Amino acid sequence: MLLSTTLISALLVSVVSAAPQRRAPAQVITSCTVPKTAALTFDDGPWVYAYDVSKILVAAGAKGTFFLNGNNYECIYSDANIKRVKTLHEKGHQLASHTWSHKHLPELNWDQLHSEMWRVEEALIRIVGVQPAFVRPPFGEYNDLVREVAGLRGQKIAIWDLDTGDTVGFTPAQSKALFDQAIAKKPSTIHSLAHETMYSSVADVLPYAIQKLQAAGYKLVTLAECLGEQPYQWKQPAGVKDTTWNCDEVPT
Q1: What is the pairing mode between strands 37-45 and 162-163?
Q2: Crossing angle between the packed helical segments 79-90 and 110-128, to the nearest 10 degrees
Q3: Which residues contact 116 (CB under 8 A, 6 or more apart)?
Q4: φ/ψ bin of 63: left (φ > 0), alpha (ψ from -120 to 50), beta (otherwise)
Q5: How far is CA 76 from the centre of its chain?
Q6: Domain NodB homology, which positions (predicted)?
Q7: CB-based burial label for 126 (10 Å; 0-12, 13-18, 19+)
Q8: CB 67 within 8 A of CB 108
């Protein structure tokens, strides 16, 4: 049965407003499990380089995973970003949550955490009709409460086992060296973190990483595929933009 976004929102609000419920804390995912797969993941979008990332991946017969914010670099509901999200989905890439506004989650309370997670989930439901099964906490930061909230929301927490360092000042040469070092160890799988907001990562490091990983025999797939799992909890028809599709702040 398909549920309207309005009804879903009402149900989620009731969960947030109620006393904390008990459910198994979210599982924390670091590495892939399907042998000889590599998951290239990209944080902080949607942003202007989303199309470039997608084109590079698709040209190589690869798929990526995009952990999207709702209101970080730019509002997800802008016409340009709606088009980016739809294109990524249509090209077969996986969409996942990076929370609404990229806050330090361990500093938030129960209600604030639900709001940070739900608002970006709502955006993905509206724009492409998917409820993500994975959330990546900004900065990789989580605590027991973050795990409890994510678990209640039916999501797994996705970290990584190879950080390209692109947001902490690493040069493209240094990021490439990290891929070389990782591949040289011949791990069964690789799960990398990069950012679609960093031009050097997209234009320079990504093509290099693809070439090296494929030459080493890795199949470049989505995070869900490299885990043998589903990318979304459920799907429904996408919505139609109206005045409620905005990034206005909500009370905290």
Answers
A1: unpaired
A2: 70
A3: 99, 100, 101, 103, 105, 108
A4: beta
A5: 13
A6: 36-221
A7: buried
A8: no
Q: Helix, strand or coil for residue 22?
A: coil
Going from N- to C-terminal start, the domains of the chain cover: 25-234
Give residue for tokens 């589903």: 230
Q: Give 58-121 as a DSSP string.
A: HHTT---EEEE-SBSSSBTTSHHHHHHHHHHHHTT-EEEE--SS---GGGS-HHHHHHHHHHHH
pLDDT band, residue 181 (cuts 50/70/90): very high
DSSP state letter for 138: G
Q: What angle do CA 93, 246, 84 make, to 5 degrees?
A: 25
User: Among the residues of the chain, which ranges form H helices?
Assistant: 5-17, 50-59, 79-90, 110-128, 144-152, 172-184, 199-200, 206-215, 223-227
25-234 is a CATH 1.10.530.10 domain: no
Cis omega (within 30 of 0) for bond into 46: yes
What's the CA gap between 61 and 215, in Å, rounded? 13
Instruction: Quote the tokens at residue 173.
Output: 């040469």
When pLDDT is averaged across residues 20-31 and rounded to a whole number, the result is 85
Return the percentage of the chain with pLDDT > 70, whole number: 90
> Nearest 5°: CA angle at 75, between 4 and 197?
120
